[in-house]
Amino acid sequence: MEKKEDVYRTVTKPSPEILYKDRKSKFYAEVHPITSEDDVKPIVEELRKKYHTANHVCYAWQLGTENPTYRANDDGEPNNSAGMPIYGQIQSFDVTNVLITVTRIFGGTKLGVGGLIQAYKTAAQMALESAKIVQKTIKAQMRLQFEYPVMDIVMRTIKQKDLEIVSQKMELDCELVISVRLSESEEVFQLFDEMHAVDVIMMD
């Protein structure tokens, strides 16, 4: 049985803001952790307020691990000259659940499409280099339902396998939600499944 890939790279807090300059244009870039697409708009709006003289707040984001979704936004720059170069850096640093913003204040000299692509790419790269990238593990959750007498063996197994208990309800009928590394989930599921008097359900 092949092991499932269960780690990914991301950031847990915003990166320091970096400034990249090209022919008097200023590009301010930041990396932000996001958990859903709804996180994007408030961050972008905050930047528009902060840099009220900015001509463009361009960005790219990616969410998810197995089939990630992404979006790239040029915010009025020529097509694919800003959002896609930023997104390219998300791919090359292999990070997800991140938003990278690059805010441009025009310096009076046009950079041309090639110059813009280079500037947005470099700013995004510098922001990622300054960000603290961490490796996270993808977890699966299972619900265990059993009667009180089998509590002992269930708890012993959880301890042996070093599993994390997310929530528990200990009454006559007990219910535990446990968190398991994705790559070990099938093995753990089987373990509980084979136990007499334990119902185990994989949660989404």
TrEMBL record:
PANTHER family: IMPACT FAMILY MEMBER YIGZ, IMPACT-RELATED. Residues 23-128 form the Impact N-terminal domain. Belongs to the IMPACT family. SUPFAM superfamilies: Ribosomal protein S5 domain 2-like. This is YigZ family protein. Pfam families: Impact_N. It comes from the Bacteria. InterPro entries: Impact, Impact_N, Impact_N_sf, Ribosomal_Su5_D2-typ_SF.
